[in-house]
Amino acid sequence: MQSTDHLGGTPDHSPDDEQGRNLLDRLILRIGNLLSLLFIFTVAISFYEIVMRYIFNAPTMWVHESASFIGGSLFVVGGAYALANNKHVRVVLIYDQVSERTRHYLNIFHHLAGLAFTGMLVYGAWEITYSSWVTPFGDIRLETSGSAWDPAFPSLLKAVILVVVCVMFIQFLLHLINEVSRLKALTHRGRHHV
Question: For the chain, give me the number of helices (H) and strands (E)?
């Protein structure tokens, strides 16, 4: 398996893909670039925890859970970010050896499979998010970690997962529409050159 991140791009990978293929992709890339700064914050609070724990013998209650929540959230957002700039991992053994038309068909299959997968993830994410936000009696009460600090990070992370997989479903749909249009344009060009 190899990333599609080539300097010149694969035949179906234009430099525009790195800026996003549509408005949603471009928005995701901007938000993702801003959110990536949270990695620096996570390193800073982790360093703070180390100093407090090992130099001042005063460990914090909040750093580990905060760093885990931020890291987990960024990992989930990374899926939408990779899809937005076409940096996902692709098996290229066959892909790079086939014609442009076949690559379009493979991309269409990829987008259809992505729609099916994210559709199932949306359902699962809704189920776990709902149960972590709403009690069996219908009251809103966020699931907490159960630690001494007890933040609502488990329910918030589940909500992040739900939002991101919904966004990814829309991304796959927009990419599918774009791919079908590109295939139609290729077919149209092929008919006029014959």
Answer: 6, 2
Query: Cα separation of 74 and 54, whole Å?
Result: 28
Phi first, then psi: give them for residue 11, nearest 5 degrees: -55, -30
Q: Which two tokens stand for residue 151?
A: 């933040």
Q: Which of 95, 71, 75, 74 is nearest to 3 (CA)?
A: 95
Rounded Cα–Cα distance for residues 59 and 43 (Å)? 16
pLDDT at 15: 53
What are the tens digits of pLDDT across the range 149-169?
999 999 999 999 999 999 999
Distance (Å) of CA 127 to CA 77, 116, 124, 141, 172: 19, 17, 5, 15, 22
What gap in Å lies between CA 4 and CA 185, rounded to an integer?
23
Domain ranges of the chain: 2-193
Distance CA 52, CA 58 (A): 5
Whether 52 and 60 have beta carbons less than 8 Å apart is answered as yes
